[in-house]
């Protein structure tokens, strides 16, 4: 345990009678989202959550454990709705991708949360000492891309996506679009501006399937 952690434990002895894990995770998530993993100290988390240090240790182990829990909380709270769109059978592929991107744009510009994507924002500027966290975030990013790729592959079976389409390349294009929207939102882009970018993607959509077939992505 670090000197900072020891001091906090001594200062904050005892466990609160009432501890709301969900509320604590939301507050910790907001802090990590705004400042990143490394710039957020344990003292900041204690102050933000209102929980005493021993309580946070008991629930999450350490700052890394709390951050990992915050990532899962983010995915379950904010991204579940987007991912569910890909399983709807009443939407065409174009409609599903449109709603997926528009839902994401609304999240990135929601006034109730920090701008942009939490995981993209939190992963910026990490040092070698946070390699495990960086790898975990990278894995989550790739998981989103894989989900999109699997979606396009599934739609090939029903001829909703041309069989010549390179699903991996098309998924990477969408993932890059999302990452770009996150950066734009962090730089102050409005929801309207992001939706205009999505409009452009939709205009290009018929050609994207052809373009991804022309230059397949190496696996």
TrEMBL record:
Record domain HTH tetR-type: where? 18-78
- In Swiss-Prot or TrEMBL terms, this protein is called TetR family transcriptional regulator
Stored InterPro entries: Homeodomain-like_sf (IPR009057), HTH_TetR (IPR001647), Tet_transcr_reg_TetR-rel_C_sf (IPR036271)
Does Transmembrane helix show up as a keyword for this record? no
What does the UniProt keyword field contain?
A: DNA-binding, Transcription, Transcription regulation
* UniProt organism field: Hafnia psychrotolerans
Which domain of life does this protein belong to?
Bacteria
Q: Span of the secretion signal? A: none
**Positions of the DNA-binding region:** 41-60
SUPFAM superfamilies documented for this protein: Homeodomain-like, Tetracyclin repressor-like, C-terminal domain
Q: What Pfam families does its record include?
A: TetR_N
Gene3D superfamilies the record matches: Homeodomain-like, Tetracycline Repressor, domain 2
